[in-house]
Amino acid sequence: MKPKNLQTKIFLDSGNPDETKKVIELLGFLDGQTTNPTLVSKNPEIAVRLKKGEKSTESELLTEYKNIVDEISRLIPDGSVSIEVYADDKTKAEEMLQQGKTMFSWIPNAHIKFPTTREGLAAVEQAIKKGMRINMTLCFTQEQAAAVYAATRGCQKGDVFVSPFIGRLDDQGDNGMDLIANIMKMYKVGDGHVELLTASVRKLDHLLYALQLGSDIITASFQVLKEWGEGGMPLPGDDFIYDSGNLKPILYKDIDLAKKWQEIAFSHELIDKGIEQFSRDWNKLKQ
Ligand code: E4P
Fold this sequence. Notes:
Helices cover 45% and strands 15% of the residues. It is α/β, with parallel strands linked by helices. It has an eight-stranded parallel β-barrel with strand order 1-2-3-4-5-6-7-8, surrounded by nine helices. Strand 4, helix 6 and strand 5 form a beta-alpha-beta unit. Erythose-4-phosphate binds at residues 13, 34, 36, 38, 82, 137, 163, 165, 167-168, 199-200, 219. Residues 13, 34, 36, 38, 82, 137, 163, 165, 167-168, 199-200, 219 line the site of erythose-4-phosphate (E4P).
């Protein structure tokens, strides 16, 4: 059962429905699941074929992705399931939008993941007009989160997630958890229509600190949720202090949420690297 005073929604970060089943069994609940091209490539059936050198056509691969999220969706019919569009450095907004429309029709509880890039934001501006629920991924900066807020103004709470990638910032020596605290502080003056989804969680302490900060949603791997569940689903007490070790602080910036998204400049090397990794992992599955 979900701990009574736990407000944060807990998602599983995985492309494997067997893990969904196991987490539900272990925790007694699951609020949602996030997938991405890398996680799909690690789906056991797909991984076996990949190892044998077997490839799929684009349409076969999309059917497989659809089947995976369909199975997950049936396991958590009241939750949310994130499905990611394909994007490389050349993919235009219109192309992402068309993919998003198709993916959104796959299951009743989809959130469509678009990269938080200029093309991704342009796609999302149209997607929300068509009533699509979205999850803006590959967020590494406070400016991107401000741009997501601005691009989705007018949406209802629950329709828009923004996913800051904590672990990847930690990997390069920056304190990823600072980004969560900074976005939460910035969003405090907003209308609450964007939910913050802490992603790229690598360890239990990330999860505990995100809970302490009051992140709307946290997505974590099977391993992290298993550790949390086996430990009795602890919540951080008042005495919990997150130890960021030698990681470099990420400082808070004053950003006006009233700006248009097109006026908010942002860049980060991890955005481009992330796009490259996701497209590479998808393309290696293809003929
Ligand atoms: C979830 O939506 C993200 O795609 C995922 O958490 C990224 O995690 P990673 O940095 O471990 O690949």
